[in-house]
Design a protein that fits this description.
alpha/beta, Aminopeptidase, eight-stranded mixed sheet
Length: 438
């Protein structure tokens, strides 16, 4: 970190500590999240800027936040599968009805999982309880008010529901947590296959007629009957493990020092730096600090922001730097895409970050795609904005990812300052890139 940035690093760390220790949990749609928006709005006002807060309606559990529902869905499928084979032994009509319901329910569950949980689409949000969240942003213009392009910096104000497993035992191996979640996901998938197979066999037995080998079908159904009766209880227990993905009690939610008070703080300090050093501002460049809400609910804040501003010029000729989790000094990396959601982010900005990290003295800068979930760059990319995500987070399983242990005491001011240093270097590279195009 360059020495002249130390005061901004200290200030950023103060924001992180206030968010984590004074406000605490900021689960999407809660008072804690709103308090952080109000706090950052006040900070931006203190710089002489005019912050704007836009509220939006969303479903906190409509996407990845509702993953425990998949676990309960597996439990229901297990019960229906057993009831289906019992019902068919008593009455073919009843067996068909229960098996049909189990199959339709399983297909509906997986449709929601694919559309909303894996792809973050909002199509099914109306099915879930609605809450209010916010986006807060402020613009910093050149002294003459004229600009040719925009650099947007964003972080998300909300924190995740704590992984319930981590509340039970403070020193639980994080690998075991994710193994349990994996067992839950596999259990739901196997139960779905059982439900669909049972329904197909029941229909073949009842409607297959003389054109099919009735004995072979009956033998197959007998095997599936045994598989269902003997495996469903175990798979039901496995599915239940998935219900523990998120602790519902917001009082034990993650305090979110790394994820993502650090991103909010660095984005703010960039604005503060240029406000206090106007001679350092790139020529004819506008800056926008965007504090996005409800990221942990499936990027709902950044989606709402790009929808609100897609036609007002805010996103025209813009570069978007999403800062998400700057804490682990040995793991600085550029995130060049979301594997679940979209292709590669902007390659020019990817190159700029990689070069900037090296120039800042980071010996082994990382370059990776986000393997699970999504980040706020994706909605901006879909809106046609050049975007990239920047992080310094251990990509392996850790006991502080989405848990009570994401606290400021575990990382250092200098790491946050180094993250700020890298972002400022990238902004200089964006200015050079724009100048080279003239």
């Amino acid at each position: 970190m360059r020495e002249h940035l130390r005061q901004y690093a200290d200030d950023a760390f103060g924001i992180i500590k206030y968010a984590a220790n004074e406000i605490g949990q900021r689960v999407p749609g809660t008072d804690g999240e709103k308090k952080f928006h109000d706090y950052m709005s006040g900070k931006l006002s203190d710089l002489g800027l005019t912050p704007k807060t836009e509220k939006f309606i969303f479903a906190p559990r409509g996407s990845i936040g509702g993953l425990p529902y998949a676990g309960w869905g597996g439990v229901i499928i297990a019960v229906l599968a057993v009831l289906g084979v019992i019902a068919f032994s008593l009455s073919s009509v009843a067996g068909i009805a229960v098996s049909l319901f189990a199959a339709v329910y399983a297909l509906g569950l997986w449709t929601w999982l694919i559309v909303s949980v894996f792809k973050y689409n909002t199509f099914f949000d109306w099915c879930f309880k609605q809450e209010v969240s916010y986006n807060t942003y402020a613009e910093l213009l050149p002294e003459d008010g004229q600009y040719d392009y925009t650099v947007m910096l964003s972080g998300h104000t909300d924190t995740s529901w704590t992984l319930k497993h981590s509340v039970i035992k403070s020193k639980l191996n994080p690998a075991l947590i994710f193994i349990k979640l994996g067992v839950g996901a596999v259990s739901v998938a196997l139960l779905t296959m059982i439900a669909l197979t049972n329904f197909i066999l029941v229909m073949l037995m009842y409607y297959g007629g003389k054109s099919l080998d009735a004995k072979a079908i009956f033998d197959a159904y007998t095997v599936m009957w045994q598989v269902t009766v003997y495996s469903a209880p175990a798979l039901m227990i496995g599915s239940y493990l998935l219900t523990l993905y998120n602790e519902k009690n917001p009082r034990v939610a993650s305090p979110g020092a790394m994820d993502n008070a650090s991103g909010i703080a660095i984005a703010y300090e960039v604005i503060k730096y240029f406000k206090e050093n106007p001679d350092k501002m790139p020529a004819r460049c506008r800056f926008v600090d965007v504090n996005c809400g409800a990221e942990e609910s499936g990027l709902r804040g950044s989606m709402a922001f790009v929808r609100a501003h897609k036609n007002d010029g805010m996103l025209d000729h813009a570069y978007h730097i999403n800062v998400d989790s700057i804490a682990d000094k040995d793991y600085f990396e550029v995130i060049h895409g979301d594997a679940w959601l979209c292709p590669h982010f902007d390659r020019d900005m990817e190159r700029m970050f990689f070069e900037a990290m090296k120039e800042a003295g980071i010996e082994k800068p990382g370059n990776m795609a986000n393997p699970v979930g999504g980040c706020d760059s994706t909605p901006f990319m879909r809106a046609g904005v050049k975007t990239i995500t920047f992080a310094a987070q251990n990509p392996t399983m850790t006991n502080y990812y989405h848990t009570l242990y994401d606290v400021p005491e575990r990382f250092e001011v200098d790491t946050v300052g180094l993250g700020l240093d890298v972002v400022l270097r990238v902004i200089d590279k964006i200015a050079e890139f724009e100048e080279a195009k003239k």
